[in-house]
Amino acid sequence: MTHQTIVVPDIGGAEGAEVVELLVAVGDAVELEQSLIVLESDKASMEIPASHAGVVVELKMAVGDQLSEGDAILVLDTSAAASDNAEAGDQEASSTDQSVVSTDADLASAQRVDEGSEGVADSADPEASAGHAISEQIVEVPDIGTDGDVEVVELCVSVGDKIEEGDSVVVLESDKASMEVPSPAAGEVLELLIAEGASVTQGAALIKLSVTGGSLPAATAIDSNDTAVQTSPPVVAANPAPQVSAPEVSAQPTSPASDDASDLYVGPAVRKLAREFGVDLKAVKGSGPKGRVVKEDLQAYVSQRLAGPATRAVSMGSGIPEVAEIDFSKFGPVRHEERSRIDKVTATNMSKSWLNVPHVTQFDDADITDLEAFRSSLKAEAEQRGSKLSPVPFIIKAVAIALNANPKLKSSLAEQGDVLVYKDYCHIGMAVDTPNGLVVPVIRDADKKSVWALSDEIRELAAKAKDKKLKPDEMQGAVFTVSSLGNIGGRGFTPIVNTPEVGILGVSKASTQPVWDGSAFQPRTMLPVSLSYNHRVVNGGDAGRFLTYLVALLSDIRQLAMN
Ligand code: CAO
């Protein structure tokens, strides 16, 4: 058995970087370059890849430990993967219990001096020869520990920005890490030489900087004629590739969708994945240490969104900001209860309608004094029939008549809104409040039924709704909905249209009101009604005519008998 101890490579001088995530466990088979752990310093978040393939036999650290370069991470049994190691050109594959540093993970290779700098310092300029030149400097992609292309995911500066030495210039991202490239000097940004989304390799020019004062650190310096001028002191010139500062592996958000998420704990691979999915990381709840968002959190979030009801999809796709979830247990005892399926479906439908339908609600009061007197007179007969007559069947009857007289109120939109479908039938939906939630059974051909028949059907459908015995076809095909809260109370409300219908009538509680008859106030039973309609289809005139007619029908009971 051949053991290799994998240690922390050069991580750009970061001391005491915290282990925030373990990506492997004892017994795991690890591929060459597979990420082992995630380290995070105050500025950096980085995945440390395996320098050897093998099987994890021991973990030498734990989440929360502070590690620096050279500290042991884990021990691998590499005997089964000797060929891999040989392939990787590892000269020490056969040594036992040997510490190795992954050169692949070496992110410390620094911002370097332009090795090909040509020209000489402008000796005529005393400031320049003293190392205090005002000159221009190109900031390039440093050694980022990979030969392949990396993507410029964020430009951190704009032309005209005054920046300090060490300020981030761009954020680069490979599939293993996201890195902020620090400016090697203070100065003003003269030109951006790269765009977001570009693929770059080591040495690519990023920005042109006007360096004002102070000794120039190693970098490409050019004079105003764009001729490269070596302004570094002789000692620097003698060393063409001194280390200035390491690229920082970013803990900052790199996704444009995560603008204000600077306090998020997310590893580079997860950030990259989030960007590919278009997921705003701020919306993802982290389950890792310190609330760190790990890959599983992102996966769970995406599957939840895909499986979730349309309300969530609407919110996701429409750019409507979501309401943040709050931990109410901070304020007092709470209990969580799964919502019924009906409740969830209703929530989806209501959101869909609220977001799609331009709602207008019109109010009126119907004088149902005569209707109520008539209804009272039928009480004995109702009892004889084993029934009970509420105002609702009268209202449904009147609505059916008013709909047939104003067919636009029972139409629906088709073909992306270019066509209106008129219906030559009059099935009316009736909202029923049940312990499981709101259901809307449908009274078929309400216009053809007597008030007695309607009364019986309403009672039967309401009972079925409460007993969860409604069949699917008993809840389909309505052209309009009536929502009566008259038995509950309230002076008025604005119901939400039950799409694809274009109108809904809200009925509130009737009460006795003083009504002026031209010479005196009379006590009259007034029924408040409110009509919400889709203003894409129904205009105020259509709605006004419908509601006025409806109120007239309810106020003059004889009219009901004529239809
Ligand atoms: N004004 C005053 N009283 C009214 C009334 C009104 N508008 N409507 C009904 N009432 C009275 C009835 O007359 C009856 O009283 P009496 O026995 O003294 O006559 C009492 O209220 C109870 O009626 P009910 O509930 O037995 O029957 P209903 O026909 O009035 O209502 C139904 C049936 C299914 C509409 C109702 O039970 C219901 O579920 N309503 C809620 C609908 C709802 O939730 N809508 C909101 C949807 S949006 O969230």
Classify the beta-strand content into a percent band.
Answer: 25-35%
The CATH H-level homologous superfamily of the largest domain: Chloramphenicol acetyltransferase-like domain
Bound molecules: oxidized coenzyme A
For the termini, the CA-CA separation is 95 Å
Total number of domains: 4
Query: What is the helical fraction, as a range of percent?
Result: 10-25%
Chain-averaged pLDDT: 79
- H/I helix tally: 13
Largest sheet: 7 strands, mixed
Task: Tell me the structural class.
Answer: alpha+beta
Number of DSSP strand runs = 30
Shape estimate: elongated
CATH architecture group name of the largest domain: 2-Layer Sandwich
Radius of gyration: 37 Å
Top CATH class of the largest domain: Alpha Beta
**Low-pLDDT ranges:** 82-133, 214-262, 310-316
CATH-defined fold name of the largest domain: Chloramphenicol Acetyltransferase
Explain what this protein looks like in three dimensions:
The protein has four domains: 3-77, RNA polymerase II/Efflux pump adaptor protein, barrel-sandwich hybrid domain (OB fold (Dihydrolipoamide Acetyltransferase, E2P), Beta Barrel), CATH 2.40.50; 131-236 and 254-262, Beta Barrel (OB fold (Dihydrolipoamide Acetyltransferase, E2P)), CATH 2.40.50.100; 281-336, no CATH class; 343-561, Chloramphenicol acetyltransferase-like domain (Chloramphenicol Acetyltransferase), CATH 3.30.559.10. It has 13 helices and 30 strands. The strands form seven sheets. Strands 20, 23, 26, 27, 28, 29 and 30 form a seven-stranded mixed β-sheet that branches. Strands 3-6-8-1-9 form a five-stranded mixed β-sheet, with no helix packed on it. The chain has a five-stranded antiparallel β-sheet with strand order 12-15-17-10-18, with no helix packed on it. A hairpin with a 4-residue loop joins strand 29 (511-516) and strand 30 (521-534). Helix 10 (391-405) packs across helix 11 and helix 10 (391-405) packs across helix 12 (540-555). The model is unreliable at 82-133, 214-262 and 310-316 (pLDDT under 50). Bound molecules: oxidized coenzyme A. Oxidized coenzyme A is lined by residues 390-392, 430-433, 438, 458, 462, 483-487, 495, 507, 509-510, 527.
